[in-house]
Amino acid sequence: MSGAGVGGASEERQAMQAHVSIILPVHNAEPWLDECLRSVLQQDFEGTMELSVFNDASKDKSGAIIEKWRVKLEDSGVHVIIGGHDSPSPRGGNLGNKAGLLQHEAAVQHPSSIIGCRVRRDPPNSTERYTRWINQLTPEQLLTQVFTSNGPTVIMPTWFCSRAWFSHVGPFNEGGQVRAEGERKMGQTLCVPLLPGQRTTIWTHRVRFLEEQALPRWAAFTIWNAGKQGRRLYRSLTAGSQRKVVAFCDVDENKIRKGFYCHEDSQERPKPRIPILHFRAARPPFVICVKLDLTGGAFEDNLRSLHLQEGQDFLHFS
């Protein structure tokens, strides 16, 4: 938590040097504050610590108690930053109503679901396409678009569920088993995730998930994209799933003129030769390996022109 606007540049420099920051929002906490702040003083951590207190419109003696402990804490080497306001009502409570309580209400109505929400990025222009995808998903697409490289359709920082449901589902399964059932999302912006530094490829798990959850419903299907991503998906499928691929389709005339894709690494003889068709000549269902929101709407227009139903006639994989 930054000390900007509270103690000036010198406090900011000290805050940056702290190894541990203790963030303490306070509202009418007089009965508990002495014990709380005493516990901070009694910490045996050997690194540098700071305490950042936000007094959220307290009307009791919380402010005086905080000031009393500021002296003791700073004498012991704990840097203290104090902020707050004296508005008629606490602002933190209002934020809680918006972020936590709305999701709590949804969780009560859907006790066997993970509740998510829309998000706002910080900085605002980071991962624009990804943020747009998150916020524009329909309730139906929470299930149909779980196969894309974007990852879960209800993104992790927004997850909210009951303790009972968490205990039932259990912690993360490191073995790669993924479940798509029971996801819901609030239609409001309640979370501001920061831009991560890296992403981890989970291609193999996505392909297995596709084969377990979607492909068994289809006797045959077409891969939409005869380029790198489409061919990679084909090569990653099991032999049984590969035999279901009746064609690739594309808009690239050069690929279409070539006429087919030959799977050179196949152990079968003769080696499989998969036709490459124009998308209008291909037949659904499609596994689409074209990234959304990248072609100025051209791909989306082509897909809409076929009047297909997502989840039944096609699934997005890229």
TrEMBL record:
Gene3D superfamilies documented for this protein: Spore Coat Polysaccharide Biosynthesis Protein SpsA, Chain A
GO biological process, one term: regulation of translation
Coiled coil: none
GO terms for MF: tRNA-queuosine(34) galactosyltransferase activity
Domain Glycosyltransferase 2-like: 21-82
InterPro entries, sorted: Glyco_trans_2-like, Nucleotide-diphossugar_trans
GO CC annotation terms, alphabetical: cytoplasm
Highest taxon above the source species: Eukaryota
PANTHER family on file: GLYCOSYLTRANSFERASE, UDP-GLCNAC:BETAGAL BETA-1,3-N-ACETYLGLUCOSAMINYLTRANSFERASE-LIKE PROTEIN 1
Protein name stated in the entry: UDP-GlcNAc:betaGal beta-1,3-N-acetylglucosaminyltransferase like 1
Organism in which the protein naturally occurs: Pan troglodytes
